Structure formats: C-alpha cells, structure tokens
UniProtKB/TrEMBL annotation, chain A:
It comes from the Bacteria. The chain crosses the membrane at residues 15-36, 48-69, 76-95, 101-118. This is Uncharacterized protein. Keywords: Membrane, Transmembrane, Transmembrane helix.
UniProtKB/TrEMBL annotation, chain B:
Residues 1-19 form the signal peptide. This is Pyrroloquinoline quinone-dependent dehydrogenase. The lineage of its organism: Bacteria, Pseudomonadati, Pseudomonadota, Alphaproteobacteria, Rhodobacterales. It comes from Paracoccus gahaiensis. GO terms for molecular function: quinone binding; quinoprotein glucose dehydrogenase activity. GO terms for cellular component: membrane.
Amino acid sequence: MPAPLPPAARAREELVANLMAIPAALGLILAVIAFFHRGSGISGTPGAGLAILGMAALTVAALLVGRLAPGRLRTFVTVMILIGGLLTLLCAWFLMQGWIMLMIVLTLALWLVFILVAR
Amino acid sequence: MTLFRILPALVLCAPAASAQQTEWTGFHGNGMAQKYSASTQITPENVGDLEKAWEIHTGDVSDGSGDMVGTVWSATPILANDLLYIGTPFYRILAVRPDTGEIVWTYEPEDTALEPLTQPELKNRGVTYWEGEGDGPCVRRVYIGTMDAELHAVDADTGALCADFGEAGILNVNQWNKPDANFPLSQLQPPTVFRDKLLLGWAGKDWHDVENPLGSVFAVDARTGELEWTFLSIPEDYDGVTGTSNVWTAMSVDEENGLAYLPVSSPSADYYGGTRLEEIPLATSVTAVDGDTGEVVWSRQLVKHDIWDYDTVSAPTLIDIPNEDGPIPALVQPTKMGYAFVLNRLTGEPVFPIEDRPVPASDVEGEVASPTQPVPTLPAPSMDDDWGGVFGLADLASFGYCSRTFDELRYEGRFTPPSLEGTLAYPATAGGYQWGGGAVDPESGILYINSSRIAQIYQLIEREEYETLQTGGSEAEGGLFPMTGAPYGFRLTNFLNPVGMPCWKPPYGLMSAIDLKTGETLWERPFGQIQKWGFYMPESWGSPTIGGPVVTASGVIFIGASMDARVRALDATTGDVLWKAQVEAPAVSNPAVYDYDGRQYVVFAVGGNSIIKPQVADQLVAYALPD
C-alpha cells in the first residue's frame, strides 16, 4: 500500500491530468464535427465513429487518471491512455484528420508530463 | 413567369454584356469535346492560392433511404449568355450568376416522373445551350432531358418554356420509340448541338432484355423540335432480335467539315451474343455521320461481336494534331478497354496502326466469339494486357480468398469471353476510360485523361438456375442481369475479398498525358485515393474515377472524379498535384472553366455516384484566385 501523496503533489498530478483532458476533449469535438460535417470527407463513416470513440475514451481516461490514487488501477488506466492514444492516432492518420492528430499528440505529450510528475 | 423572376435576368444583362469572358458552352467545353480553356489567370505557380468563390446547394438530392431512389449528378455547368446554367437530377434548371452563384431564375418541370424508369437511380448530366439569330424570346435556349424521354426547351434569359418547341416547349422523344418498347428513350445526356440541330441519343434498360429498341440518334430542329433525320445503328430487320447499340453518352461535332461523331454502344444482350450472331458493323463503334443528313460517312468498329458491354463510352475528342506536313485532322476515341483509338476524323483511317489480334474463343454453348479484335499499337493502353496476378495483401487479409476464387475463374487475357464458371474480365465494363473522356491542349497536341483499373467477374448462369436466384432483388444493382430472351442470365461482380479489398494489384486509377504527335505516354501517375469506412488508402493505389478533366492554356489540369471526394489541380507538365479541396461527395462530373469580369473560375458539380461510393450531394462550388 503506497503512502498517501502530499496534497501539493496530488494537486499537481490532477492538474496535469486535467490539462491532458483538454486536447483530448477538443479532439473529441473535432471528431464529432468530422462525423457530421458533409464536407469533412469522412462524414457518417465507421472510421469517423471510431475516432469519436477513441477520443471519448481518451477524454474520460484523462479525467479519471488524475483522480485515482496510485495503484494498479491507475497504472492500468495510464497504460491504456498510451495504447488508446496511439491507436486513435493511427485511426486519425488513415482518416487524414490532421487537427485530431495534433490533439492526440498534445494529449500524449501531457501524458508524458503526467508520468514524470506522478509517483 | 412572373415579372419578379424576369427582372433579375434583365438587370444582370446590363453590366455583364461588357464583361470579358471565356465561355464554356457545352458538356465538354466545346463541340469538339476538347475540354480546353484558353484562360491563363490561374497558373501552376498560383493555383495553390485558389479559394472558394461561392457555392450553392440545389436541394435536388436523395440518398435513396426514403421513398425516392438515390441521385447521380454528373452535370457540367454551362457558361453562356452571361449566365451559368446547370441541370439537376430532379430535371430542374438553375441559372446562376457566374461570379456570385446567386440564382437568377429556376425552371421547374411539371408532371415529370421522378422514378427510375430505365436506370437504378435518378441521373442527370446537365443541360444544353443553343443560340439562334435575331431578337425576341427563346432566341437563346437551354434544354434539359428527363428519364421519361422528354426534352424541355426554356428561354435562356427567363427560364420560361419555349412554346414553339415540341408541344408547348416539351418534345416527346418517345414518339420515335417502337410502339411496344420495354423502356422509354431516356434523355439523361444533354443533346449535342450541330448548327441549328440538336442531336439526341438516349439511355435505356439495356441490361434487362435481349430485345430492345434499335439504337438510334435523332436530329431535331433546335427551334421546333421537328425531326430532321434519324440514324439507326442496327439494321431494321434485326428488330425483335436484338437492340440498343445506342448512343447514351455525349457526341462531338466538326461543324467546319459538317460531321458529327457518334460513340455507339454495344448491342443487347450485353454479355451473350448467341442470339445476334450476324455482324452488326456499327455496334460498339465510332461512327461519323453527315450532320445535315445523318448519312454514315465512315465507321470503325472498336469491338467485334461485343459480349463484354464495352460500350463506346465517351464523345471522341477532336483535334488537329500539329505535324510537320500540316495538321492531321484527328479524333481520339477512348474506350472501356483502356485503348485510345486515334483516327483521321475525315476518313476514319488510323493515325497509328491498328492490329487485328487473335483472342480467346468462347466455351459457352450457342456463343461464337470473334476470333480477333482490333488493337491500336499506339498510344499504350491504360491497362496492361495481363491483369498482374492476385494482390497479396488482399489475399492475406482474406485468408486466401482471392487466390482460391481466381483458381476457379477462366482467364486468358484480354477479351476472355464470359463463361459459366466465371471469367475474370480485365479490363471490364467498368473501364478503362469512362464517359468523362479526355482533355486536349490543341496547341501542344497533348491529351490528358484519367482511367480506372478494375477487375470484374463475368458469369453466365443457365436460365433455370438464374430463375432460382431471382429473389425480388435489384437486378443490375445487385449484379444480376436477367438478359430475358437469352438462354442465360448473368452475374456481374467486382473482384473483391469479403472485407471489400480489391483482389487485383494497385493502382486502381491513373492520370496520364499522351503526346498525340507521337503516341508516346509522357507521364502516368496514380490519381486520387480509395476510401473504405472513411479510411484513406495510400496515394500510390490511386482511385477508380468517374468524370473527366479539363486543361487550361496555362498548363493546369482540373479534375474531381475520384472516390475520395476531392477536387484537384494538377501540373500538366508533370502530373503533380498542385492544389486540392474537399467537397461533399465525389465530383463525378466534368468541371467547367471560364473567365468572367476579369476573374477565372473553375466550377464543379458535386453529386456523387453510388457506383463509386455511397455518398451523394447537391453542391455546386466555384473556386477562383483571391480578389
């Protein structure tokens, strides 16, 4: 059982995780727009649906991970963010959605920061 | 027509009359089907700066999910009379301002059936513009055809029906159909203008029956609709035996020499010729007729005893090929086989030699395939003679499905006849080249043309067995062709694995430049991108295409056509993509290029076609350089 984190460290972790959720949420919005906008090139397609799913999962996971105490569950969610992010990045690459890709890269960059600040 | 609707047209005429413009007066830009614009404002250097100048949505679109069938919109906008005219799949005509897209008038037909009478979907390829002499109403006219065989003529200034044409402005083309015909002579392709005549081909349900209306082209007076001559592609004593060999695509005209060129399609049944073994010399041909009389001047059959549905697919492009000994009056006839036949357009003699090559025999009872087929030695075909073998990735993804299927098919190269076990057809009826045709720069003598590489499976099915397959499905749409009257039905399928990947190797679509002076292919590049479930495949795979290019004097090629719903500008020298924009569906139409008030525009009708992708739209969009 790891020792409880000091409040300052915990706040820092939560802040980084929340920051991570911002590009993920923006990516989610972009994916939703791409799904519904007729001129996106991918409107109404399963690929766009998959991008929405991926970005939604990233957003939820980013919000969740900062609120979890250190332990197996947080490790699992942290790893899943990386895997989900990379897979969604691949999905966005094949969908040729540059802005979504940028949001995912930002999310993963903040994920790296989270790893560095988290114990 | 209310004064409210007429006024904007009158107001428009005042400033526009002085405008310096390059017009785009026909489906292929001009009657010679060159798709060439003399405009030079947009260049390879600045084309990257293109921006959307205006767009409109016509509202005439259906994805087929409701009561109405889907729409296929392949219209080319026409710039004439200081207005841009466009027809829609609901047979409406819009006249819009060329510089703003503002709608000046709309023609809405009454009592026209929006039903798929001869085609699986509602189709339209636009309108025709004709201008007579003198003043007064209907001196300038716009025509639109309908699937139920009507041709409507309206005043180009106001959109009002021209009462002196046909009956109160509507010509019933079906009056010249055989009395017991199994389908109307659908007017999907706008008429071709030859002087003061309109040349009318037609489309039909040619895939359904053996016996159909005999192929014909009608020349009618542009003012009255009165019939002036009729061309028949099949001898009249063949009535009741076969039919079609019609002209469903655009034609081209050489007004100076008084000739019209007819791309004649294949006879019915499309895939079995055992019921029509006697020669039909004008079938699947390019035929030159006297534009004033309809008399055949010369004809060249491009496929003998066609049993592959290799319809002559586009208007031949006419060009005087630059030559040391003086220009050669030529035409280029692209075909579904990926051949471009280059002929002297006055005599029909080949500019580059054509060889008669032996081809495989049919093994189907009752069928006698031609032992040879004509093959042009130059230019090189857009598809190799051999299909190239199974695509390893598609085979791997389907655990060997492609290889197993191919092992069961008959394949002996080009012109392998349809068979009972199934024949791999490469090229197949999907082409090769298609109805968009090529664009040519008359100064340089270079042809720019897009093509597809598609492998399909042709399977004849014994009548008894075929009847058990009839589950009330959508026939041609579902790949089943009844060919009623023949001992066989037919199934046509694309050679895809179960997840939808092509079983043949990429590229699937190309853009090429061909020097018509030498027949040499200058460059050939994969064009467009395939999409599956929204995912884009590599650019090196290219995309099947529908719709053609245009080329400008400044060396820019504009084209939509690809599956990825993008419109592009290419460098005519290299084929490099210089600019692209996303649109709402595949732009399966020929674009129009024109100058208006000192600004050059390129306009695309974006309508989609379910053959290429299940995505439709009603977007008309114009691009120009920033003001």
